[in-house]
Model the fold of this input.
Amino acid sequence: MALPLRSLAPAPPDPILGLTEAFRADTRPEKVNLAVGVYVDDTGVTPVIPSVLEAERRLLEKAGPKGYLPIDGRPGFKNAVRDMVFGPDHEIVRSGRSATAQTPGGTGALRVAADFLLQTGSSRTIWLSEPTWPNHPQLFTLAGFALRTYPYLDDSGRHVDAGGMLDALRSAAPGDVLLLHGSCHNPSGVDPDQETWSAIGDVVIERELLPIVDFAYQGFGFGLREDADWLTGLARPGLEFLVCTSYSKNFALYNERVGALTIVAADSGRAAAALSHVKIAIRSNYSNPPAHGGDIVETILTDPALRTRWEADLAEMRNRILGNRAALVAALVAAGVPGGWDPIRRQRGMFALLGLSADQVARLRDEFGIYVVGRGRINVAGLTTANLPRVVQAVKAVIEG
Ligand code: LMR
Done:
């Protein structure tokens, strides 16, 4: 008869994508969007990278019927992205103890993972890093999980609080789900070192936790293999986990919604059985994945020359971000802005957390037209030669009050 009462009170805007809406409505010509994690070049444009253009050209040439894909996606795509996550010679690949499903983006992979776990009787408790990507709490709560958090950053906000994190995880109950950021932690850019990854793996085994690795930025930090160093902590015999990957960033395919969920099990039989339940989660949500984005990724990853071209495209994006990190730190230091900025140089991926208060973030937006997320998460890729001086002066103004 009528819509539910609560649906009639407007919901708050999304903490990230809602800022893009506000940014678009802002008429100030000098406005700067450092909010959503989308790569732009030095002219402020999100490029279609050359390897993607070439793959699209080839796909158009051999365009065929647009029938449904299998529920879990195209086999060629699934194998290619599995090999990219683990490396083709990894024991997990050789033993066949993983199973992959193509999903609409990394967010789709996370939601399918959540549904799969709850529909097959997993613990209903999930542990998230504090801070984390703002969509994690919403996504897992709406899927039916109860949230717990583990501290992630030390007081400086520039390093992992390994002791605090591990202590908190030692209080988790057996079977609890543990969400980890594989690399390029969102929002901080601060990642565990190898030693901490090993210690995380030890606690996972000791407390019998089930990790989900949110791995949305492979290749955006230090390199495709370098960014997979979390594997040294988790890839151990008998340790089972889920990996959610996104190809939005590393292929600049944001609006194609292409990602994957990979389940790593103790043996191939367990992986195959789990995939049959993943397919039910997919079928009941969106039936089967869209084809085009996955076809682009498969075309690139399975053609050696095109793959080499793509790795160069990826390196170009990564190196620009690393250059921006150095330029930002140098400019903040040169302007005498108070704060321990230097570690930002060596952080990984798209984001850096400036560590601002809500008031300071509001002033950046209202007085200076600079849009940032939460406690001052900035998309480092959004800095350009043209906007960097203004951003630094604005940050200085709000920090100095
Ligand atoms: C971000 O954190 O900005 C990106 O992952 C985009 C998104 O969907 O929030």
Remarks:
- The chain has a mean pLDDT of 97.
- The longest strand covers residues 98-103.
- Residues 16, 36-37, 133, 135, 186 surround (2S)-2-hydroxybutanedioic acid (CB under 6 Å).
- Residues 68 and 288 are 7 Å apart (CA to CA).
